[in-house]
Amino acid sequence: PVRSEVILKVNGKEYTVDKSLDPATSLNEFLRDKRISMGTKYMCKEGGCGVCVVMAASVNPSTNDIERKAINSNYTCMCPVFMCDGWSITTVEGLGSQRDGLHPIQDRLDKYNGSQCGFCSPAQIMNMYALLLNDTKPSKQEIEDAYDGILCRCTGYRSILDAMKSFADSKCSPTDIEDLETKTCRKTGKPCPGKCSNPATPKPERPLHLVLDSAQWFKPTTLTQLYDLLNQYKEKDMRLV
Ligand code: FES
Ligand code: FES
């Protein structure tokens, strides 16, 4: 049967978009006009500034693998919201906040003074989030390359890149910080010497994979597949939403 609407998730919450919406509506317009994510910004609306980046997880129809990408949600010509059927979108609000606790990437950008006016910060953060989801040990060069499409109008590139490259510097992955209860490094099991670039923070950190890339939620999934998925994510601090 032909469906007349698309269903997508944003930060774990499901939204249905029906044909009453202008078919030219971009994902960015949808996120902002519906007040779903005001943290997702826009500027050029031409795919040139990268300030509208969010992370999108979807299932590759040919391999059935979950793909997680940083996408420019306002590429109006490339990403109308009607293209996003079955996608699981994560925006900066899905990672953390001052009230609920900062995500490690937000925290790092803050500590390196990488947020000047802050307008581009959500995109810088979501870009790194997508990169780390795909590769927990990117090199400094890979990180720099991943940032060639996001402009900072305050031109504070050095502090932004320093913050993001600190993830490459660390001997630990961003999720391997000190366990605040046992006071040991989660990776080595030894007391944290406090010399790595991932020192324990005063507040409990939110897990890196706060929102499961639940792109499979809309697909028929057998119980066995579901348990496999859960086991796979268990180790990575993911949770099914
Ligand atoms: Fe500039 Fe999306 S607003 S790339
Ligand atoms: Fe102002 Fe980047 S911090 S635009």
CATH superfamily of the largest domain: Beta-grasp domain
Which class of the largest domain in CATH terms?
Answer: Alpha Beta
- Which fold name corresponds to the CATH topology of the largest domain? Ubiquitin-like (UB roll)
Task: Tell me the distance between the termini.
Answer: 27 Å
User: In which order are the strands of the major sheet placed?
Assistant: 2-1-5-3-4
In percent, how much strand structure appears in the residues? Answer: 5-15%
Indicate the percent of residues in helices.
25-40%
The coarse overall form would be globular
Query: Whole-number radius of gyration?
Result: 18 Å
Structural class: alpha+beta
Cofactor: FAD; [2Fe-2S] cluster; Mo-molybdopterin
Family: Belongs to the xanthine dehydrogenase family.
Keywords: 2Fe-2S, FAD, Flavoprotein, Iron, Iron-sulfur, Metal-binding, NAD, Oxidoreductase
GO molecular function: 2 iron, 2 sulfur cluster binding; FAD binding; iron ion binding; oxidoreductase activity
